[in-house]
Amino acid sequence: MSIEQNKQAVQSWFDAVNRGDEAAILALTAEDFGFRTMARQPEWLLYHWTREEFAKVPTTMSQVLTTPIQLSVVAMTAEGDRVAVEAETDSEMLNGKRYNNAYHFVFTLRDGKFTEVREYSCSYLAQSCFGAVVPGDPASTAMAEA
Protein backbone atom coordinates (compact mmCIF):
# COMPACT_ATOMS: atom_id res chain seq x y z
CA MET A 1 0.00 0.00 0.00
CA SER A 2 1.09 3.57 -0.55
CA ILE A 3 1.89 5.96 2.27
CA GLU A 4 -1.38 7.81 1.65
CA GLN A 5 -3.34 4.54 1.75
CA ASN A 6 -1.64 3.65 5.04
CA LYS A 7 -2.58 7.05 6.48
CA GLN A 8 -6.17 6.54 5.35
CA ALA A 9 -6.20 3.11 7.03
CA VAL A 10 -5.04 4.75 10.26
CA GLN A 11 -7.82 7.34 10.01
CA SER A 12 -10.29 4.49 9.48
CA TRP A 13 -8.92 2.85 12.64
CA PHE A 14 -9.51 6.04 14.66
CA ASP A 15 -13.02 6.34 13.21
CA ALA A 16 -13.80 2.74 14.25
CA VAL A 17 -12.36 3.28 17.73
CA ASN A 18 -14.38 6.48 18.17
CA ARG A 19 -17.56 4.62 17.17
CA GLY A 20 -16.70 1.69 19.45
CA ASP A 21 -17.15 -0.51 16.38
CA GLU A 22 -15.71 -3.89 17.36
CA ALA A 23 -16.43 -5.48 13.96
CA ALA A 24 -14.61 -2.69 12.10
CA ILE A 25 -11.63 -2.87 14.47
CA LEU A 26 -11.39 -6.62 13.89
CA ALA A 27 -11.67 -6.14 10.11
CA LEU A 28 -8.75 -3.68 10.17
CA THR A 29 -6.41 -5.89 12.20
CA ALA A 30 -4.34 -8.93 11.24
CA GLU A 31 -4.78 -12.24 13.08
CA ASP A 32 -1.43 -11.71 14.83
CA PHE A 33 -2.23 -8.10 15.83
CA GLY A 34 -0.96 -6.75 19.13
CA PHE A 35 -1.72 -3.48 20.92
CA ARG A 36 0.64 -2.50 23.69
CA THR A 37 1.40 0.45 25.82
CA MET A 38 4.93 1.59 26.21
CA ALA A 39 4.36 2.77 29.80
CA ARG A 40 6.82 1.80 32.51
CA GLN A 41 4.45 2.09 35.48
CA PRO A 42 1.96 1.30 36.96
CA GLU A 43 1.99 -2.42 36.34
CA TRP A 44 -1.68 -2.63 35.33
CA LEU A 45 -0.93 -0.24 32.44
CA LEU A 46 1.71 -2.55 30.94
CA TYR A 47 -0.80 -4.27 28.71
CA HIS A 48 -0.41 -6.18 25.50
CA TRP A 49 -3.83 -6.89 24.00
CA THR A 50 -4.77 -9.22 21.17
CA ARG A 51 -7.07 -7.98 18.41
CA GLU A 52 -10.10 -9.49 20.16
CA GLU A 53 -9.20 -7.83 23.45
CA PHE A 54 -8.43 -4.46 21.89
CA ALA A 55 -11.69 -4.44 19.90
CA LYS A 56 -13.54 -4.33 23.25
CA VAL A 57 -11.44 -1.53 24.80
CA PRO A 58 -13.23 1.58 23.46
CA THR A 59 -16.65 0.52 24.78
CA THR A 60 -15.13 -0.83 28.00
CA MET A 61 -13.30 2.45 28.73
CA SER A 62 -16.39 4.44 27.84
CA GLN A 63 -18.31 2.72 30.67
CA VAL A 64 -16.59 5.05 33.17
CA LEU A 65 -16.84 8.22 31.03
CA THR A 66 -19.79 10.59 30.64
CA THR A 67 -19.61 10.14 26.84
CA PRO A 68 -17.78 7.58 24.66
CA ILE A 69 -14.05 8.19 24.35
CA GLN A 70 -13.06 10.22 21.29
CA LEU A 71 -9.50 10.35 19.98
CA SER A 72 -8.62 13.31 17.76
CA VAL A 73 -5.75 13.06 15.30
CA VAL A 74 -3.43 16.06 15.55
CA ALA A 75 -0.84 14.98 12.96
CA MET A 76 0.38 11.93 11.02
CA THR A 77 3.78 11.05 9.61
CA ALA A 78 4.33 7.94 7.52
CA GLU A 79 7.20 6.00 6.04
CA GLY A 80 6.88 2.61 4.40
CA ASP A 81 4.49 0.41 6.39
CA ARG A 82 4.67 2.54 9.55
CA VAL A 83 2.52 5.51 10.50
CA ALA A 84 3.20 7.72 13.51
CA VAL A 85 0.29 9.69 14.95
CA GLU A 86 -0.04 12.48 17.47
CA ALA A 87 -3.50 12.35 19.03
CA GLU A 88 -5.42 13.64 22.00
CA THR A 89 -8.59 13.05 23.92
CA ASP A 90 -10.60 15.19 26.30
CA SER A 91 -13.22 13.34 28.29
CA GLU A 92 -14.99 13.60 31.61
CA MET A 93 -15.04 10.66 33.99
CA LEU A 94 -18.26 9.72 35.79
CA ASN A 95 -16.64 10.98 39.01
CA GLY A 96 -16.04 14.43 37.46
CA LYS A 97 -12.30 14.04 36.77
CA ARG A 98 -11.04 15.26 33.42
CA TYR A 99 -9.23 12.73 31.24
CA ASN A 100 -7.41 14.83 28.66
CA ASN A 101 -4.48 12.71 27.55
CA ALA A 102 -1.99 13.28 24.74
CA TYR A 103 -0.80 10.28 22.75
CA HIS A 104 1.78 9.15 20.27
CA PHE A 105 0.87 5.97 18.40
CA VAL A 106 3.08 3.95 16.08
CA PHE A 107 1.10 1.77 13.66
CA THR A 108 2.65 -1.06 11.64
CA LEU A 109 0.74 -2.47 8.67
CA ARG A 110 1.11 -5.56 6.51
CA ASP A 111 -1.02 -6.05 3.41
CA GLY A 112 -3.38 -3.27 4.50
CA LYS A 113 -4.01 -4.67 8.00
CA PHE A 114 -2.58 -3.53 11.31
CA THR A 115 -0.11 -5.93 12.88
CA GLU A 116 0.94 -3.74 15.79
CA VAL A 117 0.00 -0.52 17.53
CA ARG A 118 2.22 0.96 20.22
CA GLU A 119 0.75 3.63 22.46
CA TYR A 120 2.80 6.25 24.26
CA SER A 121 0.81 8.46 26.63
CA CYS A 122 0.88 10.04 30.07
CA SER A 123 0.68 7.06 32.40
CA TYR A 124 0.40 9.36 35.42
CA LEU A 125 -2.83 10.83 34.06
CA ALA A 126 -4.18 7.39 33.09
CA GLN A 127 -3.45 6.07 36.57
CA SER A 128 -5.00 9.11 38.26
CA CYS A 129 -8.24 8.64 36.24
CA PHE A 130 -8.54 4.87 35.74
CA GLY A 131 -8.06 2.17 38.34
CA ALA A 132 -8.01 -0.57 35.70
CA VAL A 133 -9.07 -1.23 32.11
CA VAL A 134 -10.07 -4.84 31.48
CA PRO A 135 -11.30 -5.41 27.89
CA GLY A 136 -14.86 -6.71 27.79
CA ASP A 137 -15.23 -6.66 31.59
CA PRO A 138 -16.95 -3.45 32.66
CA ALA A 139 -17.24 -4.72 36.24
CA SER A 140 -13.42 -4.86 36.52
CA THR A 141 -12.86 -1.59 34.67
CA ALA A 142 -12.85 1.16 37.25
CA MET A 143 -12.09 4.76 37.98
CA ALA A 144 -9.19 5.54 40.26
CA GLU A 145 -9.98 6.29 43.87
CA ALA A 146 -10.57 9.98 44.48
UniProtKB/TrEMBL annotation:
Q: Name one Pfam family in it.
A: SnoaL_2
- The transmembrane residues are none
The species this protein belongs to is Sphingomonas chungangi
Q: Which InterPro entries match?
A: NTF2-like_dom_sf, SnoaL-like
Look up the domain of life of the source: Bacteria
Query: Boundaries of each SnoaL-like domain copy?
Result: 10-117
Q: What is this protein called?
A: Nuclear transport factor 2 family protein
